[in-house]
Amino acid sequence: MASDAPDDPPPKLATVTSTVVKAPATKRKPARASDRAGPTDIADPLLREEARRAFIWIGIAALFALVVLLAQPLLVVFAGMVLAAMIDGGARLVGRVLPIARGWRVTIVLLLVAAFLVWTAYFAGSQIAAQAAALPATIETQTLRTIEWLRGHGFAIEARDIRGLAERAVGGIGQLTYVVGGVIGTVTTVLLVIVLGIYFAIEPRLYRRGVAWLFPRDRRDYFEGTAQLMGSSLRRLMAGRLLGMTLEGITTWLLLQVYGVPMAALLGLLTGLLAFLPNIGAPVSGALMILVGFSGGVDMGIYCIIVYVVVQAVDGNIVVPMVARRTVDLAPALVLGAQLVMGVLFGILGLILADPLVAMIKVWLEREAARHETEPAD
Questions:
Q1: pLDDT tens for residues 103-162?
Q2: What's the CA gap between 92 and 107, in Å, rounded?
Q3: What is the C-alpha radius of gyration for the chain, rounded to an integer number of angstroms?
């Protein structure tokens, strides 16, 4: 018989409580600037690879556009980088003696350069200025004598042709200088280069980090290594160039002064300055030296030829090989070709910067070749 009593209620389920143990919160370290996402970081691997391929062609087109439109301002910026490398080299030398902050070392280098320029202007400025005023007339006179001698030996050369060629050359240099420097001319360009060089020399890491931030994160270390190699090569190249300029200028001045060659101080100064242009500066300074020497007689002219040959032989066989072992090894024909092209395109400034530019391109190409050798082929 069925019971009318209600069914027993189902048993209550036991409530199980679990205690969640939270790990102690750890303080996250702030991300480094080199680890932060940049404008060129793409998360999707496929999209990133396609974007890189597209940017290669876009970069090539942009490079040509920059060369055409912004070549001259970029050349001035590069001149500031070259000057900064020289200042940085001097600051590093001071740091070996005085372990002080970088800003103070850069200040000491700039003060030493300014003191040298003031000393040169005070003790030799009037003499060099007088010699510079007399140099054009001496060169013109000796050039006309050379033309007459050549005509007497069967060469059909007219003096007016030489004068016209000289006037066109001077006019062309003036136009190129006007293009590079603007209305004010070379003075503005020099001031801009000096200001840029000082800024770059004081905080080089700041500008390197800024440029590196434009690259993807996986390429920033590679850029940093390339930039450091370029800076090291540029410092050594400029140090060697300054050493050669100093030795050639002082040696030429002393040897000419001993024999009593007129304008010895000016010729020594021009020889030192033109030594900054390898393959081109030496023939120009030698021609000036020989023309001035023959103005004092045949014996003096022959002596000037001997001085030029001795100085260039010592520089070419002792100084240049010694410097080349510790600097960027550049082929002379490559440097000469770059100087001719840069001189035609950008004038005096391009001629001066052709050698450092070729050196930087060489370092970059060597780094790219080394990277492709270490990376596995697809």
A1: 889 899 999 988 888 877 776 666 666 666 666 767 767 677 777 766 766 666 655 555
A2: 12
A3: 33
pTM: 0.65
User: Cα separation of 8 and 122, whole Å?
Assistant: 119
Residue with the two structure tokens 């024909």: 333
Q: Are 94 and 109 in contact (CB under 8 A)?
A: yes
Q: What is the pLDDT of residues 10-27, one digit of tens each?
A: 555 444 444 444 545 555
Are 348 and 79 spatial neighbours (Cβ–Cβ below 8 Å)?
no
By the 8 A CB rule, do 353 and 75 touch?
Answer: yes
**Nearest Cα to 88, choosing from 195, 194, 204?**
204
Dihedral, 126, 132, 137, 138 alpha carbons, nearest 10:
100
How far apart CA 84 and CA 76 sit, in angstroms, is: 12
CA 15 to chain CA mean position, Å: 79
Distance in angstroms (rounded) separating the CA atoms of residues 161 and 132? 25
**DSSP label of 263:** T
